[in-house]
Each structure stands twice: as structure tokens, then as C-alpha cells.
Amino acid sequence: MASVSTSQPDARGGEYRVTVRVPATSANLGPGYDCFGLAMARYDEVTAHIIEGPSQVRVRGVGARTVPLDDRHLVLRAAARVFARSGESAPALALECVNRIPHGGGQGSSAAATVAGMMLARALGGPAAQALTDDDILALATEMEGHPDNVAPAIFGGLTVSWTPVERAVKTIRAQVHPTIELVVFSAQTHSSTKAARNMLPMNISHRDAAANSAATAVLLHALTVDPSYLMDGTVDLLHQSYRSSAMPASANLVARLRSAGVAAVISGAGPSVLALSTGALDLAPWDGVQGFTSDRLGVDAAGAIVKAATTGDEAGPAYSASSAIDPGKNDTP
Ligand SMILES: Nc1ncnc2c1ncn2[C@@H]1O[C@H](COP(=O)(O)OP(=O)(O)OP(=O)(O)O)[C@@H](O)[C@H]1O
Ligand SMILES: N[C@@H](CCO)C(=O)O
Predict the structure, then answer these.
(1) Can you say how many angstroms the Cα of residue 331 is from the centroid of all Cα atoms in its chain?
(2) Ligand 1 mutation target, pool 110, 191, 332, most atoms within 8 A of CB
(3) Do residues 88 and 99 lie in contact, with contact meaning Cβ atoms separated by under 8 Å?
(4) Which amino acid residue places its CA nearest to atom 6 of ligand 2?
(5) pLDDT bucket at 288, cuts 50 / 70 / 90
(6) What is the CATH number of domain 3-166+301-311?
(7) Distances from the Cα of 66 to the Cαs of 106, 126, 155, 236, in angstroms?
(8) Who wins on pLDDT, 172 or 315?
(9) Which residue of 28, 179, 250, 294 is surrounded by the most CB atoms within 10 Å?
(10) Which residues form the signal peptide (predicted)?
């Protein structure tokens, strides 16, 4: 569940800073296209405070050399949405971003940045912004992303199943992941734009495929929460992976090889990362050094976005420091 703790701005003039930590997320999980999402223990952190304009952005880690450092920055654009929705004028912000989630990798980087900007704006804004609920943020972030499956787990943590009732606001169920399930993420050295990957999907699919995908999605929820022995059957997808495989052949190949070895592997989000779901520690030895990928065991993040606020001069200071251990050069990829 997204959690917030705030302190009041210091009457003596200390600087009021808000820090948000948002998890990476893997969407789809096979058949749950635009619906299933899982929060993973890999995090971006953004610290912000209000300044006299214009806004300033500093980035360490992923994207340091590629993201725009002005009002086009995704965190600032997301924050602006919250102020606009609240009827408040957007203040200029100073942002310090520490990024670990690869961009265009299928690990929910844009959802994390969007949720970070919205959570920061809620914490720094006036009464109307502060009155926004997590569900309001979910709706606004879904509007920006175009689909809810990454933003929901980024906000709430854990496994989420999201849908939008006709003419109504997006809804999310949060489910408990079975404790024996372990995640391995194979991060690709290449990138894929989610927008481009969405354009590869057909307008229509056969009734037979739709029926099989519906069944697999129901099995997936059972496998992820009750009986992981059904993970292989529950991760069969007929909506997106095959249609996108020509844009990410190495990822499609890795998924096929893992599945042949009995590992429930899927394309993570819109790719090209690959997510393996296993019960018990997956032996990585046969997969270490698969060309073009680096593998990491990641826990499931149960907390979702966490926001903390502090005034400079407070003994505690912000909970997450922008100088936390990270090699800014290592992940500096677009
Ligand atoms: N932390 C960030 N700061 C600024 N911009 C970001 C940040 N994270 C992502 N972006 C923007 O979003 C783009 C990637 O979004 P995209 O939706 O294509 O991929 P993704 O979110 O990494 O993957 P997926 O949606 O499949 O999980 C980046 O190229 C960049 O423009
Ligand atoms: N459901 C989205 C997830 C993107 O992370 C897609 O596959 O396009």
C-alpha cells in the first residue's frame, strides 16, 4: 500500500523536501495484458522541493545523459497533471532523481516516474492536491500511461489486477503473491518503446485465442496466489508476445528456452526484459552469460510507493538520500 508520512514546513524557513521511492514493475505476466502487474524490489528515488522558477532537474543513474532536464521531464509533467487537476498553479520544483529502473526495458520506468511526480506534487501542493487519494492518483497516472498495469503496482505494491469498468474510473484488486514464488529478471541491453510495441498488436484476434487467453488469465491468478504448480499453464499468452517477437527476437528466444526447461518465463511488460517466475531458487548457472542480458533475483515489493517529507535541519532528514549507493555511470543507458 502506498504510504505517506509528512511533516509541516518549517516556520523558521527550513527547506521542505519530499522524497518518493517507487518500485519497478512487470506488467502482463503472460496473458494478463494491460491488467496484471507485479511490483519488484528495484527502485527509483526522487527528492523535490519548491523553488523560485524555472524548475531544475538533476539525474543520477539510468537516463542521466538522455532524459530532458527541463519541464519536459516526465516527473515534472506528471506533477503538473496533479496541480492542474487540483486547480492549483504548478510551482517550480528542484528534483534530484536517482534512477535504477532501465528505460524502455519493460520494467515500468515510465510508470515509476509518473507515480513519483504525482506523489511529490500531492505532498508539496495545497489542500486540493493533498486531498487526492491513491485511487485518484491511480486514475490520473493511468490516463498518462494509457494503461493501468504498471502504475497500479507502482502505487500499491505487490500483485495487482486492474480493469476499467465501462465509463467509470479504473479499479485495482491487490492480491498476495504466494510466498514460494521467486522472480528473476533478465534485463536486456537493448530497449523497446512501449508505444511502438503497442502499435505491433493486431486490431482483432480469433475467438479461440480469446477464450484460451481468458482461461490462462484465470489460471494465472490461481497460480500466483494459491498453487504455483500451475505457473506454466497460467503464463501462456495469446494477445501480445508473438506479435511483438520480431522486434525482440533475443527475448522471444530466451523465453522459449526457459519455458522448454520448465521455467515459467514471460516477456516483462512491453519487453525486451524477460521475467522468470519460479518456485524455489532458479539455478541461474545455465542462464548466466546469456548474451545481451543480465540476470537479477529480485524480491516482490510489497509496499509500493513510499513518500517521506522532512525539513532541512531536521535530525532525521529525508529518509532516502540521493547519494545512496549507486554507480551513476554503470546504468547510464537510455
Ligand atoms: N525516471 C525517468 N525520468 C524521466 N523520464 C523517464 C523516466 N523513466 C522513463 N522515462 C521516459 O519514459 C520512456 C520509457 O517509457 P516506456 O513506457 O517506453 O518504457 P518502460 O516504462 O521502461 O517499459 P514498460 O512500459 O514496458 O514497462 C523513457 O525513454 C523516458 O522518455
Ligand atoms: N500492457 C502494457 C505494459 C507495458 O509495460 C503493454 O504490454 O503494452
Answers:
(1) 17
(2) 110
(3) no
(4) 270
(5) confident
(6) 3.30.230.10
(7) 18, 32, 25, 35
(8) 172
(9) 28
(10) none
- 181-298 adopts what CATH topology? Alpha-Beta Plaits (3.30.70)
d(CA 244, CA 54): 41
Q: ipTM of this model?
A: 0.98
Measured in Å, how far apart are the chain's first and last C-alpha atoms? 30
Res. 7: pLDDT tops 90: no
Number of helical (H) and strand (E) elements in the chain, helices listed first: 10, 12
Closest C-alpha to 112, from 71, 83, 141 = 141
Distances (CA, A) of 174 to 144, 159, 279: 21, 6, 21
Please give the distance, rounded to the nearest whole angstrom, from the Cα atom of residue 285 to the centre of ligand 2: 29
Instruction: Give bridge partners of residue 162 from the DSSP assignment.
Output: 172
What is the tens place of the pLDDT at every residue in 77-121?
Answer: 999 999 999 999 999 999 999 999 999 999 999 999 999 999 999
Q: What is the pTM of this model?
A: 0.91
Cα–Cα dist 240/244, whole Å: 6
Domain boundaries along the sequence of the chain: 3-166+301-311, 181-298
Q: Give the pLDDT confidence score for residue 236 in this predicted structure.
A: 98
Question: All 3 cell numbers of residue 284?
Answer: 541461474
**Nearest alpha carbon, ligand 2 atom 7:** 270
Ligand 2 mean position, distance from CA 323 (Å): 31
What residues does ligand 2 touch, defined as CB less than 6 Å away? 27-28, 33-34, 106, 147, 149-150, 194, 197-198, 240, 269-270
Residue nearest atom 14 in ligand 1 by C-alpha distance: 104
Going by their DSSP bridges, the two strands 16-28 and 306-311 should be labelled as: antiparallel
Lowest mean pLDDT of 8-17, 124-133, 202-211, 244-253, name the range: 8-17
DSSP helix/strand/coil, 188:
strand
- Residue 143 alpha carbon to ligand 1 centre in Å: 15
Please give the Cα distance from 40 to 174 (Å, whole number): 14
Ligand 2: distance of its center to the CA of 101 in Å?
16
